């Protein structure tokens, strides 16, 4: 569709009704909303029956705002629910994962029976390394089956895993290991990206220089590169794990046993260790995966094209799909490893029926041209999903037309690391969809949009997204910092959960997400705080001050623009601006991750500040996005902004 046609269409029709074919076979019907609304707590208790409990819960919700527990007297084992029970039910030969390597042609088929043996061996190995229930294990791995196996082995032992995205730096890794006091780290020698091996183990070695409590490192050999070895601390996976017994008796743990910690950026420089427990989290992952993706475990092949280093991978590559016993694709590479049609080849080869990915990836695939998807048979697809950021209608329509063949419903799913699982999404077969709208809360969840004072806005109005009732997969808090949990999420609007997102209700009352309203940026679906990047920049010796904003970007959603003033003694360096800028970008990549590299760095003699000394980020965002400048009356020296705008227009950037 051309832009003009799209606009005309949006103005007129604005929505797609579900097809009668889809509705006829959908897992759930429209009565589900009324059923959940009538008594959400009882509704969720029924959903918990999707799990196998060794002790059935008799209590459902205990709510001591803002702290909830769900199913607290129940007992279960997460890895048993994901793996063993499917084997015991006679489905051991069913494929759990079609693992697809970065290199074309390299695949591994892992059945549920295989997975059971691998998890058993890993659990024995971790036990040999001293891991016990209640411990924390850091996982810093590429997208290989051993990563999933390690997560499940931790869960099996009642130890919490803390997966750190393998794109994070040694410093980011060490701060996460220290914050939750992980004593064992599981990693690989390296990872493959577009055919090239890049080392991982050196970052672990580096990180561990400041983590004295880590006593063991378990290393998968993936790339075969040389690695430094610390005798007594380091162990090869193929030596330690593969000699273990392939059966492992598992023990049950309370529903509120911590299952996982996932660090995410907030509005300060220190990432928050968001933790989730077992019973409520698994219940909502499985329920949402079932309802929203309409999965048929016997026939569907699901592909969540995300990394296990983020919550999307946890909830919709590992826990939700495995509890539901489906077959999945697990892909190691990048969208263009081996060529720009790699994704479409994978879908064709494995007959993927459900595809879930981020808008930023869709925009990239769109940029590469529709001849790539059109050159492949994508008729196996029957449902598409998106997550991570608001999707622009143009990308949505491209996804619908060129990937979904105008027949697949698209579910735009809104959620967060903190929410554990999806909270807002259309239900396919029930809800009409609109390009760019998450539509409404899922059954059993209460969402509203409120104004500054916390009052619900009317249709056609915008405000802040809040969740007004507890839900099973809600985070139980920030690891080790309950006060911060209260401050960040529960203070802004007393009594309700403040998500940090702007939203609106359209004239029909349907929900649209509008992006973050705090200092959190969303770069290609990765969450980063402005403060975190500023902190990294001022950590560089030449830098006096830095202000970072997220400016809109056609491909990545937002991109990082940094305004930096150098120390006076840096006069010398200032003459080589290009050199300083490139060093600064590398420095940020080293301290945080390459994904945090600013798109632009503008060296400026001064930053715009209010009379009370606050940096005016809103103005800088306007400058970065070339918008006319708004109100500058509280600025100490308004000419500062103009000189920054001049610097940008002169193209003094990278
Ligand atoms: C933030 C959470 C949830 C897994 C991936 C990101 C944004 C997420 C949507 C959506 C508009 C979305 C929000 C949210 N977001 N999904 N469908 N529409 N915005 O998890 O890193 O915890 O980030 O991502 O701004 O607050 P996360």
Continuous helix count: 22
Broad CATH class of the domain at 524-650: Alpha Beta
Give the overall shape. globular
Which whole number gives the mean pLDDT?
A: 93
Terminus-to-terminus distance:
35 Å
Strand content: 15-25%
Bound ions, cofactors and other small molecules, one mention each: 5'-O-[(S)-butoxy(hydroxy)phosphoryl]adenosine
Helix/strand-derived category reads alpha/beta
How many strands in all?
A: 30
CATH homologous superfamily name of the domain at 524-650?
A: ANL, C-terminal domain
Tell me the CATH architecture of the domain at 524-650: 2-Layer Sandwich
Unreliable segments (pLDDT under 50, ≥5 consecutive)? none
Features:
eight-stranded mixed β-sheet, GMP Synthetase, Chain A, domain 3, globular, 654 residues, alpha/beta
Characterization of the model:
With 654 residues, the chain is of the alpha/beta class. The protein has a domain of 127 residues: 2-Layer Sandwich (GMP Synthetase, Chain A, domain 3). The chain has 22 helices and 30 strands. The chain has an eight-stranded mixed sheet with strand order 12-11-8-6-7-14-15-23, with helices on both faces. The protein has a seven-stranded mixed sheet with strand order 5-4-17-16-18-19-20, sandwiched between helices. Helix 7 links the parallel strand 6 and strand 7. It starts with a helix and ends in a 5-residue tail after the last helix. The protein binds 5'-O-[(S)-butoxy(hydroxy)phosphoryl]adenosine. 5'-O-[(S)-butoxy(hydroxy)phosphoryl]adenosine (WT7) binds next to helix 12, strand 20, strand 24 and strand 25.
């Amino acid at each position: 569709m051309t832009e003009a046609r799209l606009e005309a269409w949006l103005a007129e029709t604005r929505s797609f009704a579900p097809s009668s074919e889809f509705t006829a076979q959908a897992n759930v019907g429209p009565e589900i909303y009324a059923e959940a609304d009538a008594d959400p707590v009882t509704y969720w208790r029924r959903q918990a029956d999707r799990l196998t409990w060794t002790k059935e819960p008799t209590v459902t919700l205990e709510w001591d705002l803002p702290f909830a527990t769900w199913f607290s007297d129940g007992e279960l084992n997460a890895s048993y629910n994901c793996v063993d029970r499917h084997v015991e039910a006679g489905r051991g030969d069913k494929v759990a994962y079609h693992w697809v390597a970065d290199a074309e042609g390299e695949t591994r088929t892992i059945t549920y029976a295989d997975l059971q043996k691998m998890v058993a061996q890993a659990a024995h190995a971790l036990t040999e390394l001293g891991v016990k229930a209640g411990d924390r294990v850091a996982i810093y791995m590429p997208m290989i089956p051993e990563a999933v196996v390690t997560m499940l082995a931790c869960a099996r032992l009642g130890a919490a895993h803390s997966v750190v995205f393998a794109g994070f730096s040694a410093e980011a890794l060490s701060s996460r290991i220290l914050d939750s006091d992980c004593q064992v780290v599981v990693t690989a020698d390296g990872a493959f990206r577009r055919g090239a091996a890049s080392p991982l183990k050196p970052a672990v070695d580096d990180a561990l220089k400041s983590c004295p409590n880590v006593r063991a490192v378990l290393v998968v050999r993936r790339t075969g590169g040389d690695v430094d070895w610390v005798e007594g601390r380091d162990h090869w996976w193929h030596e330690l794990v593969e000699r273990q017994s392939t059966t492992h008796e598992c023990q049950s743990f309370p529903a509120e046993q911590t299952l996982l910690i996932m660090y995410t950026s907030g509005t300060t420089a220190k990432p928050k260790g968001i933790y989730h427990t077992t019973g409520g989290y698994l219940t909502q992952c499985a329920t949402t995966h079932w309802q929203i993706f309409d999965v048929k475990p016997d026939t569907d092949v699901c592909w969540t094209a995300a990394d296990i280093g983020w919550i999307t991978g946890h909830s919709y590559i590992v826990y939700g799909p495995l509890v539901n016993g489906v077959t999945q694709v697990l892909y190691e590479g990048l969208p263009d490893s081996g060529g720009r049609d790699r994704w479409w080849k994978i879908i064709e080869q494995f007959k993927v029926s459900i595809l879930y990915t981020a808008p930023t990836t869709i925009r990239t695939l769109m940029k590469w041209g529709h001849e790539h998807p059109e050159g492949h048979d994508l008729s196996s697809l029957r449902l598409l999903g998106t997550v991570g950021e608001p999707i622009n209608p143009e990308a949505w329509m491209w996804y619908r037309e060129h990937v979904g063949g105008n027949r697949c419903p698209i579910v735009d799913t809104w959620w967060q690391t903190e929410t554990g699982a999806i909270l807002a999404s259309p239900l396919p077969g029930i809800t009409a969809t609109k390009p760019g709208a998450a539509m409404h809360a899922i059954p059993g969840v209460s969402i509203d949009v409120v104004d500054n004072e916390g009052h619900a806005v009317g249709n056609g109005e915008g405000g802040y997204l809040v969740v007004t009732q507890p839900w099973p997969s809600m985070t139980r808090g920030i690891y080790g910092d309950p006060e911060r949990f209260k401050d960040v999420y529960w203070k802004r609007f007393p009594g309700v959960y403040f998500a940090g997102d702007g939203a609106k209700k359209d004239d029909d009352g349907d929900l649209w997400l509008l992006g973050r309203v705090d200092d959190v940026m969303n770069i290609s679906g990765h969450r980063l705080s402005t403060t975190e990047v500023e902190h990294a920049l001022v950590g560089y010796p030449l830098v006096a001050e830095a202000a970072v904003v997220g400016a809109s970007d056609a491909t990545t959603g937002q991109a990082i623009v940094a305004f930096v003033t150098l120390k006076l003694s840096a006069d010398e360096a200032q003459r080589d601006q290009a050199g300083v800028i490139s060093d600064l970008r590398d420095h940020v990549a080293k301290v945080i991750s390459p994904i945090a590299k600013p798109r632009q760095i503008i060296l400026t003699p001064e930053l715009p500040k209010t009379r009370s000394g606050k940096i005016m980020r809103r103005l800088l965002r306007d400058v970065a996005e070339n918008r006319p400048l708004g109100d500058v009356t509280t600025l100490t020296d308004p000419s500062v902004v103009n000189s920054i705008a001049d610097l940008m227009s002169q193209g003094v950037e990278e």
